[in-house]
Amino acid sequence: MAGRTFAEKVLGRASGNPKAKAGEIVEASPDLVMSHENTFLVDKSFSEFGLDRPWDSDRIAIVLDHRTPANTVQTAAVHARIRKLVNDYSIKRFYDAGEGICHQLLVEERLVRPGQLVLGTDSHTTTAGAVGAFATGVGATEMAGVWATGSLWLRIPETLRVELSGHLQKGTYPKDVALRIAAMIGPSGADYKCIEFNGSLIQDMPIAGRMVLCNMSVEMGAKAAIVVPDAVTKEWFRGYDPPVKAVVSSDPDAEFERRMEVDVSKLPPMVAGPDKVEISRSVDKFEGVGIDQAFIGTCTNGRLEDLVAAAEVLKGRKVSPSCRLIVAPASRRILVDAIDMGVAQTIVSAGGTLLPPGCGPCLGSHEGVLGPGEVCISSSNRNFRGRMGSDEAVIYLASPATVAASAIEGKIADPRRFLR
Amino acid sequence: MSNKPRIWLFGDDVNTDLIIPGRYLDSYDPAHLASHAMEGANKGFAAGVAEGDIIVAGRNFGCGSSREQAVIALKRSGIQAIIARSFARIFYRNAINLGLHVIVSGTADSVFKDGDSAVLEVEAGTLASIDGSKMAALDRIPEHVRVILDHGGLIPHIKAKLGKK
Predict the structure, then answer these.
(1) Strand, helix or coil at A284?
(2) CA–CA separation, A136 vs A377, rounded Å?
């Protein structure tokens, strides 16, 4: 009998069905569920069941991050309603406006642990695969059903195994790897599948970079994505109780539906756009495209490593008067570290505008909305038309270093020219 | 419901920002959401759509965000079903959970033109023009999905299950 994949093991365990195979539908119980402002919609659906409280408040995490601090009176009322239900249901894992982005906090606070089944009412819930969890996005009513019953149906996905080899050259980062893979397999190339990232590149990659790969996997249609857990994963949990004794991985003889290999040795900085993530090519194909706004942040690239990379480019330089640079750290802890290290000073002195930790302009609700005809280069995950404001605006995606280099020139620029 | 449902034809990878972008999500009011439905893909949709109309699309319909408001906007617009070559998984589940039929068809988007009138026969698995000159076969709705749709969505489905206990 063939070995079992990570997805089969986690969903098999979570459904009490240890022999379950890819393609089977199981009724699975999540270990952790997360929702953000759309907790409002979750609770609206949940209230229809007439139940006093969710099945297990200790497995619920709620983060206010999408419209923080509140951008409108309506949002303020939504936030207030959520604070009240957090209290009513005795939900202890609550992160109010300003603490950070949900996907960042789940990992940073060690709420997600290896081998867990994690659900979130946000497509980028896949990010938590960076620490070896099976994490996937669901809608608000689906979450209400889980609040009521403690379980949901899931189809056990097939696995796409991506072997990453080589070392990243100066000026290239995990984001460039993700954009390269998006160009290779397209926006539905991993539809309904679990991606497993493995290979020599992973061995050197810290959790921050792993989060980028798992985060961007949903742009390829993936149901979940993990970086095959290893010593780096275990180290991440050192000092946090209970200790991580074992991680869950695919067996060596597990059946993978597809395997692909990507050698990053010659990978250049990548830029994706406009409108589609898979329109992703070497930065030199885009150099000189004028920009009005440069944005660094989000669940994809708002971590300390990203702010440090941007600061390396920005140090001693100024943002072009023809564009704005806005920077939103992914969490309070990241912001504090960026202040302590002088990174925040470098960014602001160069002409950048620092936003509070949160999702900020990524979803076009506030704090850097694009006007008609404007062009933005962003470290986020989606360049869909209309996402960041006007549907006559254009968005390009890139790594934080490429975004910072572009901010200095006021047009899309190669970060390697700014790095020693 | 109109006796002549109109087909609204879309291409591949219609994402949730085209269906309902974030700038309209401060309000959860279905009428507000419907008034901006599909604005990024077809500016005439919200004003022109009628109860019972059908969306036909290519691959990966609903990719992007998990926002359930995308389904709420389309359902409130009067759309009775979405027929596509494939669906992004969260959108697919959201539609089922809110009782909106989402059906896979490998041919509907090549058989029908935007503006065509057609009749959907879910049981028979067909989408056919009124005069019978055009017909597309639909995939069977999987059984585990069918039971939820038969209840009208996830909430009544779970209520029925809780009631049995």
Answers:
(1) helix
(2) 27
Q: Are A125 and A35 in contact (CB under 8 A)?
A: no
- What's the rounded Cα separation, in Å, for the pair A362 and A266? 30
Q: Least CA distance to B63: which residue of chain A? A: A221
Mean predicted lDDT score pLDDT of chain A? 97
Query: Which of A8, A71, A78 lies closest to A43, judged by CA?
Result: A78
Q: Helix crossing, B89-97 with A140-149: angle to 10°? A: 70
A275 vs A308: CA distance, rounded Å: 28
Residues 6+ apart with CB under 8 A from B110: none
The span from the CA of A260 to the CA of A307, in Å, is 31
Locus of tokens 């936003």:
A355
Beta pairing class for B118-121 and A159-165: unpaired
> Over the stretch B117-153, which tens digit does the pLDDT of each residue have?
999 999 999 999 988 899 999 999 999 999 999 999 9
| Domains of chain A, first to last | 6-263 (3.30.499.10), 271-418 (3.30.499.10)
Task: Flag whether pLDDT at B2 surpasses 90.
Answer: no
Enter the DSSP assignment of A244: -
pLDDT (tens digit per residue) in B30-49: 999 999 999 999 999 999 99
Quick count: other Cβ atoms within 10 Å of Cβ A258? Answer: 14
CA distances (Å), origin A410, targets A173, A288, A290 = 22, 9, 6
Contacts with A384 from chain B: Cβ below 8 Å: 15-18, 40, 64
Q: Which residue of A has its CA nearest to B42?
A: A391
- Between strands A60-63 and A32-35, the pairing is parallel
- Chain B neighbours among A 215-234 (CB < 8 Å)? 221, 223
Look up the ipTM and state it: 0.96
Question: What average pLDDT does this structure show over A384-398?
Answer: 97
Grade residue B165 by pLDDT with cuts at 50, 70 and 90. Answer: low
Confirm or reject contact between A122 and chain B (CB < 8 A).
Answer: yes
Is residue A292 within 8 A of residue A204, CB to CB? The reply is: no
Name the residue with tokens 């505008």.
Answer: A353
The domain at B7-140 falls in which architecture? Alpha-Beta Barrel (3.20)
Report CB contact under 8 Å: A142, B93: yes
Where exactly are the structural domains of chain B?
7-140
A153 class by beta-carbon count within 10 Å (0-12 exposed, 13-18 middle, 19+ buried): middle
H/E segment holding residue A116: none
